[in-house]
Write a structure and sequence with these properties.
This protein is an alpha+beta fold and 138 residues long. It contains four helices and three strands.
């Protein structure tokens, strides 16, 4: 089974809200709502497959609410249009990260030599600390 390089998300699944940006910027910041708050409902999106949806919801990302809604806030640029593009690019990167299937970890066992090295190092540290324990050390 081959997976596509990226998933197209239709505009009707996105909710955009324009708010005033924070930070310096003079009158432009106080007058114009250039910051974009983009919301995408991961849990109920028909565009995502079940596997991708599960991977995205399983990620520990503070931008995902408990209801499974991804909230991206973009206010890096001075124009509303550039902030919209930035938010959509970040959304696409987030969804594309869900396409990547993590590799299963193969359990391995430490070699006899590595165990011996670890135990030898522990004995050496122990003897150093034992030496400090005597009254004549100081």
């Amino acid at each position: 089974m081959t997976t596509p390089a990226s998933i197209d998300i239709p505009d009707d699944e996105l909710v955009e809200r324009f708010v005033r940006s924070s930070g310096p910027g003079g009158q432009n910041v106080n007058k114009v709502a250039t910051a974009v708050e983009l919301r995408f409902d991961i849990a109920n999106s028909p565009s995502l497959s079940d596997e991708v949806r599960a991977r995205l919801l399983a990620r520990r990302d503070r931008r995902v609410t408990s209801d499974g809604v991804l909230v991206i806030s973009a206010q890096r640029f001075r124009t509303q249009e550039r902030n919209r593009e930035d938010a959509r690019e970040r959304l696409q990167a987030f969804v594309d990260a869900g396409l990547h299937v993590p590799k299963k970890r193969v359990a391995t066992k430490p070699s006899r030599a590595s165990k011996e090295r670890r135990l030898t190092a522990k004995r050496e540290r122990s003897s150093i600390k034992q030496g400090r324990n005597t009254r004549a050390w100081d």
